[in-house]
Amino acid sequence: MKRIVNHPMEEAGGRKYWRSLGQLGDTPEYRGWLEREFPQGASELSGGEVSRRAFLRLMGASSALAGLSLAACRRPEKHLVAFTRGVEWSIPGKALFYATSMPTRKGHTPLIAQTHDGRPTKIEGNPLHAVSGGATGLFEQASILDLYDPDRAREFKHAGKVATAEAFEKAIDAIVGKAGDGAGLAFLLEDSASPTRERLRGLIASKFPKAMWAVYEPLGNTAAAEAAKAAFGAEVLVRPDFSKADVVLSLDCDFLGIDSQTDQARAYAKRRSVDGGNKMNRLYVVENRFTVTGGMADHRLRAQASQVGAVALQLAGEIARLTGDVALNSIVNAAPKTGTQFPADWIKECAADLAGKKGASLVLVGERQRPAVQALGYAINAALGNLGKTLSGAKPFNKPAATIVELAKALGDKAVKTLVIVGSNPAYNAPADIDFAAKAKNAETVVRLGDDEDETAPLATWHAPMAHYLEAWGDGRAADGSYLSVQPMILPLFGGWSEIDLLAKFAALPKPKGAELVQETFTKLSGTKDVATDWPKFLYYGFLTGSAAGAAPLTLNADAVAKLAAEKLSLPAPDAESFEVVLVSDASVDDGRYANNGWVQEFPDPVSKLTWDNAAWISPKSAKKLGLENGDVIEVSVSGAKIEIPVLIVPGSADNSLTIALGYGRTAAGRVGSVAATTERYVFGDDVLSGGFNAYPLATSAEPYIRIGAKVRSVGRSYLLAVTQEHGSLEGRGGDLVREGTLKQYTENPKFSEKFGMDAHIPENRSLYAHPPLNDIHQWGMTVDLNACTGCGVCMVACQAENNIPIVGKRQVIDGREMHWIRADRYFASGPNADGKYDQDMDEPEMVSQPMMCQHCENAPCETVCPVNATVHSEDGLNVMAYNRCIGTRYCANNCPFKVRRFNFFDYNERQLTELRKWNLISDRGMEDTLKMSKNPNVTVRMRGVMEKCTFCVQRVQEAKIATKANGRDSANVRIPADSFTSACAQVCPTGAIVFGDIANPESAVAKIRTGPRAYELLKYLNLSTRVLYLTRLRNPNPRMPGAETAAAYSQPKHHGPHGADAKKGGAH
Amino acid sequence: MADGAVSLECPKELQRVPLVGNERKFPWITQTVSEIVEGRTPIWWWVFFLPLAALALVGLLCIGYQISNGVGVWGENHPNGWAWDITNFVFWIGIGHAGTLISAILFLTRQKWRTSINRASEAMTLFAVMCAAIFPGIHVGRVWMAWFLAPIPNANAIWPNFRSPLLWDVFAVSTYFTVSVLFWYTGLVPDLATLRDRAKSRVTQFIYGILALGWRGSNRHWRHYEMAYLILAGLSTPLVLSVHSIVSFDFATSIVPGWHTTIFPPYFVAGAIFGGFAMVLTILLPARIVYPKLDDLITRNHVDKMAKIILLTGSIVGYAYLMELFIAWYGVNPYERAAFWNRAFGWYGWTYFAMMFCNVISPQIFWSKRMRNNYVVVFIVCQFVNCGMWFERFVIIVTSLAQDFLPSSWGHYSPSWVEIWTFAGTFGIFLSLFLLFMRFLPMIAMSEVKIVVPEADPHHKPGAAH
Amino acid sequence: MANIFPRSSNWLPLKIVLMALVLGTGVSAGMWYYFTPKYTRVGYQPVQPVQFSHKIHAGQLGMDCRYCHSFVEVAAHSNIPTTQVCMNCHAQVQPQNPKLAPVRESWQTGKPIAWTQVHKSPDYVYFNHAAHVNRGVSCVSCHGDVSEMEVVHHEKSHSMDFCLTCHRNPENELRPLAEVTNLKWQATPNEGESVSEAQVRIGTELKKAWNINPPDKNCAGCHR
User: Fold this and answer.
1) Global pTM?
2) Strands A474-477 and A107-116, bridge-based pairing
3) Cβ distance A130 to A123 under 8 Å?
4) pLDDT at A398 (0 to 100)
C-alpha cells in the first residue's frame, strides 16, 4: 500500500491538529476544532463499515474514487487533495521522526517513532539513550499494532451502554465531589515509572488522605523488592552491571529472555565477544527449563525451580568455605538443611570460579524466586565482594503502594465505595485465592479506564477507553532512572483518555488539554529556569540529559537475611510422583496484556517455537513416563486449583517440572487473543482453537509463580499446537550450518572453524553460469554473529513491522505457511559425552539459535529457475523480487536451499483470517481500516499468489541512494556514507549480532567483520557465494568442570555425515 | 503351377503370427470398426459416461475454487512448494508418451503391429496431455498473469527467463501437443472419409464430410498423405524423447538433493513409455470386452508385445532407481545421502516401497508368456504400473522437498480434499473424452490395418490361403 | 455417389486460413495499440475543479514550476499546491475573478480543492521526483511542455518501457541543473550538429561528470 498523495475533503480539518501539536498550542482554534471535529469523528467510529471509513478520512490515507462511469472503468478518476494551509514540517510522502518512550513493566523504553502523514508506522529505539541504544524489545516493536487494534475499547460506557465523554467527565466530577476525605475511595493501577503520575498521586493523597492507592502487576517484582528490603534494609532497586562481570551465575534468572532489558543484554553481549581485546565472560545457568539465557550458558545445570534455593544454599556453603565469609557462613548455618544434594563437583567448580573472580563475578536470582532465595543471592554477592561493583542499587521510582491483597480485603469488608481501576485487568490476572472479581462487586461504583473492554470491563459502572502511549502526553523513567518524555504521534483514534487525564480529574485539576501537567513535572524535575527552550529540547531528544539515578549504597544486613533464610528457606525435597508448576511470563504476550496483538501471537516462542498458544513444557523423560505426546491435554491440579492444558515436550527441561506461560486463556481479549477465536476453520473438520490456556488459577498471592506438589493426569484429549519449527535436531549438519567451538580452540587458532563440515571437501569450482554484473559502487551484505545472537527473535517482529508482513493465523502456521521473512532457527544439539555416548533423551542438549533470512546469494538458485524473471539480481548485489512480475510458480522457493522464500497462499492482506477458505465470491473482502493505517507506505503490500522474502530492506537502501543523489545534485560522489542506515533487523538487535551495510566500502562495519576469522558461508559447497555471512559461535567452558570437553562438540568436524552419530536425536520433535 | 505354389509355401513354424485374426477381409474390417460409431449408443456407454462426466465436473469446480481463493486451498506449504499439482502433471504427461511412440517410432521402425492400436493410443495421448496441461496452468499463484510466460513484446519491455526449465516446459509441451494433434488428425482423414461415405443421414454426411477435408482416396491423395504422415512421424519422434527429458530438467537442473540428478532424462523417458503403455492397455482391454469383434484386430499378439515393452521399460526404470541409490552412496555428499535415505526410510518411506513394488517387481511377471497372454493378469499389472508411476513422481517431488538442507525448515505435507478431487476430476475428463472418442470416431485406423492384411499384398491371390 | 459439398467449397479451407490470418493480425495489432499506456494514458485531459491555466502561469507569466510544486526537489511526490499558495497572489491579483470562486471558497471554509489526478503511477511503482529533478532530468521529459497547456493532459505514455528507454540511455534527457524547470530549453548545437546530437553530447558529458547511472536492470530501483 504505497501512499498516494490523495487527501479527501475532510483531510484538511483532520490535518490541523498536527500544527497544533507541533506548536504544543492550546489555541482557541485548536480547542474549537477538537470539539467540532474529533469527538464527533470518534463517535462516528462506532459500528458499521461506513462510519469506520468516515473515520479513516479524518486520519487521511485513503483515496477518493469518483464516478463509475464507463470512462472510470478504464481509468478511475482519482483526486489529489492538498491542504488548504501548509502544515508545519509535513512534506507529503516524507516520514517524520519523534522521540518518545513506551511504558513497560520494567520502566519506559526510549524510542523514536516514525510517522507518515500523521500515522505512526514504525518504532525504533532511541540511539541517543543508553538504555535503548537504538534497539528495542519485542513489545515495543509490536506496540504499533496495538495502537491500530480495531478491537480496542472505542466507547465511553455507563453500565454497558454507550455514553459520551462529557457524561463520563461529569460522573467523575460527581465522584470527586462526594469523595470527602477519600474514605471509601480506592485506586487500582498498573506499575508505572511516570513521575507525573506519582506527582498526581501526591496531590490525590493530600486531597483524599484516606483514599487507598493499590498497584498490582501479576508479574511484578514484589518479591525482588521484599528481598532487597530485607537484604539492604531499605527500598532499593538492584541493578546488575554485566560490563564488569567476568563470571556470571544465573539462578533461574532469564536476564537475556523474558526478564531482559535491552541495555543489560547489550552489556552482556559486549563481554561475550572475543573482538576488541575483550576477555570473554563465562556464564553458568541453573534453571528448570531451557531459556534464551540457558541457551547462551557455558555450563547449565537442570534443577527444578523449587530447588533453585537448595542449589543456592549448597553454593553459598561452598563460597562461604572458599571466601571464609563469616556473614554468609552464618546465613548458611541459619537456614534449614535441605534434603537434596546437587552434583557436588558442579557446585564446587562453579563456586571456585566465582570466588576466583571476587568483585568481578555476579550471581543473579530470578525475580520469581522466593524473597528468601533472592536475599541469599545478595548475600552470596556480598561474600564475593560484588556489591557496589557488579551490583549497584538505585532509588525506586515510586513510594510503596498497597497490594491487591489489601485492596481485596478492603473490598471484602465493604470498605470501598468507589473503585477506580486504571489499565489493570484484575478480573483476569488477580491471584485466584483473593477472588477479586467477586469482591469488586461490593463497590458501588467502579470506574475503569482500559485499552480493551476485557474481562474486567463487566465490573465497571463507567468504562472509558484508554489512550495508547502513542496517542497521549506523558513521561516516565527508564530502567536507569533517567527521565523520558512521552509525546503523542496522533490524536486518540477512539477519543481515549490517558492515565494522567483521569488522575488529573481526581486531583481536582481540569482534564489536561495538552502537555501542561507533564511540563510542570518536567519543570520541577529538571529545575530549569528556561522552560521555553529546555522543554522543546527535552521533547526533541526524548530524555533529560544527566537525569539517570545515582547509585545508592548497598550494605548487606546479614542478620535480616539469616532470619529470612531461617524462616522462609525451607524447601521440601521433591518426590518422584508429584510435579512442580512454574508459572512464567510469556515471551509473546507478557502477562496477557498483548494477547490481542497478531504479531506477538504469531511470534514463535524463542525456545519452543510455539505460536498462538501456551502449553505446559515437560521434559522428554517425564513425558515418556506419563505416556504423553505433544498436544496431549493434561489436568494439572495443585491444592484444589485445576487447569487443563496441552503438553509440549521441550528438551533440556527438568524432570517432574511443568513450565506454563501466563497470559493466555483470555476470554475477552478481542478477536485475535480470545480463547476459541477460530483463526481459520478446517473445511471438513474441527475449528482450530487458539488463545491458549489460563494458568492464573494456579497462582496464589502467597506462591504466585512456583507451586509444588502438583498432580498431573492425562485427560485423553489432544489439542492442535502450532509450532513453526517441526524439527529441532541438526542431523549432524552443524559443521555446515551452525558452527561452534570453544574459546580455547579460538585462541589456539582463530580460523579453527574454517574447514568445518563440507568445506573440507569442496573441489575447485567451475561455474557454468556467468556471474551477474555486480558493478554498482555499493555492494550490500550482512553478518550475523552467532556468538552474540541470543535467539530472542525481536528481529522477526521488527521485520514484520517494517515490511508489512501479514499474520496468517494458527491454522496456516500449522500448515507451515507463516510469512516471517526472517526466522530464528533453534536447534537442540548434543555431541558425544566423555564416553562417546549420545544423549538419547535430549536431557542435556546444547541450544543454539540462528537467524535465517534470504542470504542474497550472488549465484542465486532462485533466479535461474524463475520463468518470468520476477526475481533477478541487482548490480548492488541484492536478490530482488518484483512482486508484480511474479506469477507464483513457487519454483524459486523449492530451489532455495535455505527455504527463506515465503509464498502468499491466500490473500492475507485482503481477507480476514476467518474468511480465507470461504469461497471468494461469497466471503467478505477487506481489512479493518485501522490495520491499513499501520502499513509502511514505502513497501508494497503483497497480494495472494506472489512470492516474497527478505529484501535487505531495499526500501531503506533506495531511500538512502536517492537521498545521496538528490543532495549531491551535480556532484559525482554518489556513495552513501558508511553505516548511515541499516536494515530493520540489524537496527533492532539488542546484542548487535546482525550487522548490515556496504561491503564494498572498507569503512563500513560489515566490511571489516566479514573478513574476520570466524566468518563463514552456509552450505558453501553449493557455490552460492552468499552475501550473508555467519560468525562461528564460541563457548567458554570452565576446563575443570565435568563435561567441559564435550562443549560445542556437535559441530566439530569429526561428527559429520548424513546419519552421523548425532543425527536422529529427535530434537523438539 | 502346383510346384510353384508349393515352393512359395514356407513351413508352418516359420510363418508369422497374422496381425489380423481369422483372415478377415477389407469389408469386414470396415464394417466392424464403422458400426461401433454408426450403431445406436449402447446402454453401457451412458452407464460409464455420465458418472465420469460428473467426476470431471467436480474436478472443474475444485479448480474454480482453487483459482478464486488461492493455492492455499491445497495442502502445499513451505517447504513443499510443489506436491500433487506437479506430480499429476508429470504423471499425465508421461502417459501421453505411448501414443506418439507407437505412431511415430514404431511407424518409422516398420512395426506393422502398431496399426490396430495406434489410433486409440494417439487419442489417449492427446487427452492425457490435455489433463497434464491443466496442472502447470492452475498451480501458479496468479493464473491471470500466466501470459507473462509467453515471449510477447510488451509495454514493460521484459522477456521471460529463457534459462528457466519451467519455460522450456511450456514450449516443449505445447509443441508436443500440436504435433500430436496434427499427426492424429492426418491419420484420421481417410477413415473419416469412409465414415462420410457410409453415412446414412445428411447431417452425419455433412459433419464427417467437413472433417474428411474432401478426401477422395485418389492416388494423388494417398501419395500426399503418405508423405505428410512420414514427415509428421519424423517430427514427433524426437519429441517423444525431448518432452519428458525437458520435464525432467525441472528437477535435474535444480539443486535440491534428490532432484539434482543427471540420470533423470533417460529414466523419465523410459518411465513415461512404461506408464503410457500401461494406460493404453488399461483402456484397450476393456474395449475388447465391450466390442468382442475387436479380438481379431487387437490380438493376443498385440497385448503380448505391449506387455514385453512394459517389462523392458519397467526394468530400465528399476535400474535407474538402484543407480540413484548407488550414486548417492558413492558420491559422499551427506545431503544427497540423507535425501535418498529419507526416500526409503523417511516420513514418506511407504510411498517409496509402493513405487518399487508397482514399477519394478510387478512387471517381472511378464517374463512368463502365459501371464502375458492372461488379460486379467495384464490388466492388474497395468493398474499397478499406473499407481507406481504416480507414486514415483510423488516420491521424487515431495520427499525431496519435505526434508532438504536446513532441518529447521523441514515440513510435512498432506493433500487437502481439493487436491484429491482435482486429481480425480482429471481422470473424469480423461475417460469421458475417451468415451466420446470411441463413440464418434473410428477407434481403429481402418485404412492402416487394411495395409497389413494379406489382401493388401499386390501378389495376393483372392481365395488362396495367403 | 453425389457430392455432399459443391465444387466451390474446395477453396473454402484456404479462404478460412487466409481470413484467420488477417483477423489474427488485426486483433493483435488492435490489442497492441489500444491496450497499452500509449493509448490508455496519453491524451487524458480531465476537467479540473478550477479552470487553472498552466499556459498563463508557467507560460506567459513564466512562473517557476517549483513555486507551486514546492517539494518536488526534496520529496518523492511533486506536491499539489495548497489553497494558501494560490491565495498568496490571488488575495491581491484578480480577487473577484469568478473563475477563482472555488479557491476563495476553499480558503474561507478550509475545505480543500479536489484536483483531478492526471499522471498516476501504479502502487507498486516508486517514482521519486527528487531523484530526477536534482540530477538533471527536466519536468518536460515526462510531462511534456506543460507551459503550453491550457488544461493539463497526459503527454507521455509513462509505461515501463518509457521509463527504461531513458534509464538505459539517460544522455538523451540530461541537462544542466539550472535548466531543469526551463521547459523551453534545448541543447545548443555546435557547427554542423543537430539539436539531438547536441543533446546527446551534452547529456553524455553530464552523465560522466555527475556519475549518473540509473537502475536499468535492477527491479528494486522502482519496485520495492
Assistant:
1) 0.90
2) unpaired
3) no
4) 87
